[in-house]
UniProtKB/TrEMBL annotation:
Protein name: Saposin B-type domain-containing protein
């Protein structure tokens, strides 16, 4: 004897698929938020070489289109042809959600990327905490690789 008849089973499957899809969309938004912050951080770092006043740099950054795929390609080396359509939709959606928090916290925490993740991305959804932890884990892993490479280079 089945717990649910066929109609109910299909309805439950659709509800589960919708929940999974919504969770995936939220998580993708969290990951995009992290990438937007990394982009901001890269631009600030680059502009500090030309301009000594951080306020001017931040004002200029707030005026540019952060969802410009060519800007992302410049800083992250993405293949624009592969990501443009999905990227633009997701970036615009995410930027619309986080724009106020960027303006609110960028002046306070422009030099601390982890604080920006917490202040800007975490309010999107608690799921973002997992994405932030993954990002920090990846960063620590990359630092370890760079350290080993540096030590090996010194040895040679």
């Amino acid at each position: 004897m089945d717990l649910f008849d066929n109609k109910e089973r299909t309805k439950i499957k659709n509800e589960i698929y919708d929940m999974i899809n919504e969770t995936h969309k939220t998580y993708a938004c969290c990951k995009t938020c992290i990438k937007i912050i990394q982009l901001l951080y890269q631009i600030i770092k680059q502009e500090k070489k030309k301009e000594k006043y951080i306020d001017i740099i931040i004002e200029d950054i707030l005026e540019i289109n952060l969802c410009n795929p060519y800007l992302w390609n410049k800083h992250f080396y993405y293949n624009i042809a592969l990501y443009t359509e999905y990227f633009l939709d997701n970036c615009k959606y995410t930027l619309n959600i986080i724009k106020d928090n960027i303006e609110k916290y960028i002046y306070k925490s422009y030099n601390n990327q982890n604080d920006l993740y917490i202040y800007i991305c975490l309010p999107i959804n608690p799921i973002c905490k997992t994405a932030i932890m993954e990002q920090q884990k990846d960063l620590n892993h990359n630092i370890n690789i760079q350290t080993v490479f540096f030590m090996y280079s010194q040895y040679l």
